[in-house]
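Lecture 7 notes: from sequence to structure.
We start with the chain below.
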Amino acid sequence: MTTSYTFNFKPFEEMTEADYAEIGFKCGLEIHQQLLTKRKLFCRCPAGKYSTEVDAEMLRHMRPTLSELGEYDGTALMEFKTKKEIIYLLNKQSVCTYEMDDAPPFEIDPQAVDIALEVALLLDLNLVSELHIARKQYLDGSIPAGFQRTTLLGVDGEIEVMGKKVGIIQLGLEEDSCREVSDIGHRITFRTDRLGMPLIETVTYPVLYTPQMAAEAANVIRQLVRATGKVRVGRGAARQDVNVSVTGGTRIEIKGVPSIKHIPHLVYNEAMRQYNLLKISEILKSRGLDSETFETNASGVTNILYKTTYVPVAHAIENGGVVGAVKLKGFAGIMAHQTQEHTYFAQEISDRVKVIACLMDHPNILHSDSTSTGISRGQWNRIRKRLRANLSEDAIVLVWGEQADVRTAIEEIVIRAKDAIDGVPPETRQALRDGTNGFERILPGADRMYPDTDMPPLSIEDDKIDQISQHLPEKPWERHSRLLKYELNEQMIALLIRSSWWSLFDGLIKRCDCNPTELANLITRDFRYFKRKSFNIERINEDTLSLLYTMVEQKRILKEVVPYILHDLVSDEKGNVDKIIDHYSKKQGDEKVLEEMIEEATTLQHELLHSEKSSRMNYLMGFVMRRMRGSYPATLVKARLEEVVRDGK
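Predicted structure tokens for the same chain:
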């Protein structure tokens, strides 16, 4: 019914560092990393023991509590509005009464403290002399107690990113939360096996001035913590929160970014979103709107839409629901204003309704700026008259569902409209798969944190720090400089630095006269294949590799056969390395077998004459090498087969 707005914001691929500087882009990171400990942080349950088996279920409701200053945290109040039933799926092997807040905490796990201190030293942080445990309030249900125990280990460190120093605000040690299973309507379900596992949080200053720099900083921190060899890896073991702001905007936290490679696009869309929200604010203020005096009018319109053909509304009414309408004075055209890629301001409203009012069906709102509303012109006119709205100036938003939920939804629509007049409201937002983000909750404030009187302070002794300092691993950027001396390419260096088998490469390169590139390929390619196949890769150690490469130097086995020996060793639980080596060494130089294979390849060649020579060569090479591995170098076999292919008619 009205014209949509789209302001000029360059596509992601065209944005430059100068473009981000022009809008005052700033970004900071909060990197969460699980530690490789045997136990959880404040109890004696095993860490890392995941299961889908359920021994019991528990139902809870959350309510906010006053801070020490007698104030409620805004996020806690918002979560309380959702009226969620929280179901916890319990497995007796991985949870105890402590996690359910039915027993006091144990002493903090010393192994977790030592690992966290090691990371803090690698980040060049100023360490605290005592650990003081605090409670951080969480009412989203992810922690049954309603709060997370957390502590601070160090402040004011730094890392090097793209040749620049990036400051680290702090490193904290805290409990991990539950795993979400489902969130439908007013019921959310969690598994508790991950709950309470030790987790470190590394927080950078907002000095990352491009999305690419933000991703690189996350990579550096990941590489640094992995250099200890004492953190968990794999899906969910590390999670990134990204804080973004532009000039005139505010800090927005994008929560739970699943992969570092997604950071640049997500950050770009948030910068675009804030830029457009500020443009919306300018428009609304130019129309004379003020959030303090903003006028709205709401009414039930179920009777007007009782016979509507619009399926979502008709379905809601048939199931006993109601339809509410709210007039947003001066908002004509704003709902159709672009905010992110393929996203418009109406989504800001829809997200709030979904999260807080728990009206989760899509669509859950309808607005008068839409060019195809599904509601007849006559029905819109009757709604307009009831709300005393002028559609050339005002916007109307419809929402439907259970009466109590519709009432909550209308309240949130008005709140979000008032926020739009002021600009960018502080929020925590969730990363979406298409690179955009959606509302998750109001950004928490300082009121959610308060001291934990159950836990006494823990002194950090100088002797402990000295002992940990003597065994610190090499920092990633230092390791990178050293690997360059081996003439490895940048891609190979990046893979090695991230590899959990880095120590094998480092130890072996010092012990044996082996080719660095070939060894790096073995570790980054073959070892990853073994892991994907769930082979027992722990059977490979430095002594075994040293033996194999020594035998290669002595010409007792071919270097090509090393991956095959390792494959047989890790894929067969009863495999004996000496017998496997003996098997391959006996085959070496078997001229008779080679000639038989070449003769078979010559016969096979006649059946492949319709194929290109390169295709024939690849096929025949695979055919022979599968039978000749360990007997002859691949280069020799290739030379013989090239004669066969060349002579083929």
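Points to note: The mean pLDDT is 88. Residues 474-587 form one domain.
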